[in-house]
Amino acid sequence: MFFVNKHDKNIDSIEQIRSEVLSCTLCNLSLTRIKAVPGEGTPQSKIMFIGEAPGFVEDNMGIPFVGTAGKILDKYLKIAGINRSEVFITNIVKCRPPKNRVPSVEEQKTCFDYLSRQINIINPKIICLLGRVSFEAILSGSSILQNRGKIIERNNKKYFVTIHPAAIIYNKKLSDIFEKDLIFLGTLIRNI
Ligand code: URA
Fold it and tell me: Which terminus of the chain is less hemmed in, N or C, by CB atoms within 10 Å?
């Protein structure tokens, strides 16, 4: 949705972005965060997972998806045979919104340059969008349930949309969908 990339891929790096995010003051989320959460994983990752925003535990630890939603993600990554150490995980916004509210479009836009640079450097084979906020911000998509579980090609990139793992906390029936999607994603990535 808001891709602008002023940075030269050859001189930019995941470490450089990390240090910029850690000291970022571009929006007011920097005033309430404990730790910024740039992302976790290596630049060689074939899959990138993009969630919404850090939550309480992530804010305390500076690592994405380590709270309840993270435990759910870990469970299904394991079932799908996807090794967490081989993927890159990040969020649309890198700081926790107060009380875990949805990040505003303004906050998403302000933070987007970091994500767009991460995508540019990693150049993953598949970008997995976790949940509505990520789907809307990156593909301007609306219905997750109509678009999930398949590859969507856009601007020479392959996206795979699925539900946000936190949705399973409130609706256990969604776990079947998440499991199916991640198993399919695991198969795709092993054959790419
Ligand atoms: N939810 C997200 O979207 N991201 C996290 O890092 C944790 C929970």
Answer: C
Residue type, 155: N
The helix (H) or strand (E) run that includes residue 185 is helix 174-190
Q: How many Å lie between the centroid of ligand 1 and the Cα of residue 93?
A: 10
Task: Kindly indicate the confidence band of residue 9, based on its pLDDT and cuts at 50, 70 and 90.
Answer: low
Quickly tell me which residue has 């394991």 as its tokens: 78
Order across the sheet with 47-51: list the strands.
87-91, 47-51, 126-130, 157-162, 151-154
Closest CA to 76 of 180, 179, 189: 179
The three-class DSSP label of residue 68 is: helix
Residue 10 CA to ligand 1 centre (angstroms)? 29
Q: Which tens digits make up the pLDDT trace of 165-188? A: 999 999 999 999 999 999 999 999
Q: Does the domain at residues 14-190 carry the CATH identifier 6.20.20.10?
A: no
Provide the pairing of β-strand 47-51 with 126-130: parallel
d(CA 11, CA 144): 36
- Our answer on whether the CB atom of 55 is closer than 6 Å to any ligand 1 atom is yes
